Structures are given as structure tokens and as C-alpha cells.
Amino acid sequence: MNLKLKIWRQKDAEDKGKMVAYNVTDISEHMSFLEMLDVLNEQLVNSGEEPVAFDHDCREGICGMCSLYINGEAHGPDRGVTTCQLHMRMFNDGDTIFIEPFRAKAFPVIKDLVVDRSAFDRIQQSGGYISVNTSGNTQDANAIPIPKADADEAMDAATCIGCGACVATCKNSSAMLFVGAKVSQYALLPQGKVEAKDRVMNMVNQMDKEGFGNCTNTGACEVECPKGISLTNIARMNREYFSASVTED
Q1: For 47-56, b where at least 16 C-beta lie within 10 A, e where not — what string?
Q2: Minimal CA–CA distance to 51: which of 22, 87, 94?
Q3: What is the pLDDT of residues 88-130, one digit of tens each?
């Protein structure tokens, strides 16, 4: 395939940035989207130009680093996949593809397509953990009876990779699906009950401090989420927050 790429180029956080057009040729439909960008960057380097900066790590849909806004959609036109799992067979010969970084006040651009998502790390650090007894008297997790339905829901929430697609696709740049997943992961299990009150209060408060917006109730976050995180996690987070608020000393 021969494609025209319109890519956001921005030298640093202070630069205004702009869309720049590039042409790539002989792209195989079996390539991943990031492999296509590798071809472009090799072409740019060989011609003495600055390569396009973009985030990636595992390229297996696990790390959540490869966050790109492609033709107006977080992670592109496919569903249930990250950008690194998006294949070029989703596009046609001669297509023009627009590639931008995730846009959100809380995700400032570092360079080109790379954004700073450390806001997610700070939210996680504010309460996304449990107390663990490491004195030698720890109880085997398998010895704690947990209803299978609760375990399954907790596992579903735990599949969140923190890529930020929910934020990028939300009109208000809300992080409530991410925070809801992290709260639910522990709220459904007995191990998470000890910090339950402080966890939800701290994580929601940190989310607000980072500048994320409120939920729009449109459900776009669930549609674009590569792991299919359900909106029910937002509802659970709201219940946890309300419960913690009314019982606050």
C-alpha cells in the first residue's frame, strides 16, 4: 500500500506544533501500525530528517504505551486492540491517515506523539494498593473464599492497562473509567476492604487535582477501551465514594 500520513509534530511542550504530511510506500497489510511508523522513521533518518517520536514498549497490547489518536479514534479504527495491535489491513491503498497524540490537559505533549501520562501514576500511588502482612504470617490468597462472580469482575477491572484511551476519547477528558477500574479491582475483593474508604477518596481527589474532567455519560470511553473495561466500574466507584463520604469522620 501507498499511504499519505498527516502527523502531529511538536518539538517540546512549549512548541506550538503542527500537522506535517509524509508519504510512505510499499506498506504490507500484515504490518502493525507501529511497524509502518518504523518504516517512515527509517525513511526520515536516511534522508537526514528528524524521526517521529512515539511511545512503545511491549508491542503486545500489554503495557499501554502505544497511545495514538488515529483518524479521530483512540488506537484507531479497530476495536479491542491497542495501537501496536492495529494492523495496516484496516486501511486501504491511497488512504490519508491522521495521527495525533492523546489530547488532554492532564496529558501534556512531551514531543510529537509522546504525552506525559504520569498523572495516572500519581492517581495509582494515592490509593491503588493493599496492606500486605510480610511478617511471615501471610495468608495464602487461595485460602480466602471469594465468590467466583466477584473474582471474575475484579479480574475484568484489573485488565486495565492505563493507556489513557478513555481520557482521549472523552469530551471532558475524564479519567473516571481508569479510576473506576482501579477502585473496583480492590473493592470487589476482601483484601481491598482495609483501605477501601481512604482508597476511593484519595484516588478521586487526586484525579480532580490532575485536571481531568467529569464523566460525560456518553459511554465513548468503554467503546474505545482496548480492554473493554465496563462503565459499571464507574458506577461502583461512585457508590464507593458516596459511602466513604457519608461515613467520613
Answers
A1: eeeeebbbbb
A2: 22
A3: 999 999 999 999 999 999 999 999 999 999 999 999 999 998 8
Predicted TM-score of the model (pTM): 0.93
Element at 110 (helix H, strand E)? strand 109-111
**Fold annotation for 3-111:** Ubiquitin-like (UB roll) (3.10.20)
Q: Are 66 and 54 in contact (CB under 8 A)?
A: yes
| Closest residue by Cα to residue 125 from 57, 179, 184 | 179
What is the Cα gyration radius of the chain? 20
Going from the C-alpha of 228 to that of each of 39, 204, 224, the distances in angstroms are: 30, 21, 8
Taking alpha carbons only, the member of 183, 160, 156, 4 closest to residue 92 is 4
Task: Output the CA–CA distances (angstroms, integers) from residue 26 to 31, 36, 43, 46, 134, in the order listed.
Answer: 11, 10, 12, 17, 56
- Which cell numbers in the block locate residue 132? 500486605
CA 143 to chain centre: 33
Nearest to 160 by CA among 211, 225, 71: 225
Which architecture characterizes domain 117-246 according to CATH?
Orthogonal Bundle (1.10)
Residues in the chain, how many? 249
The DSSP code for 213 is: B
Q: Which residues are registered as beta bridge partners of 21?
A: 6
Cα separation, 159 vs 165, whole angstroms: 14
Domain extent listing, the chain? 3-111, 117-246
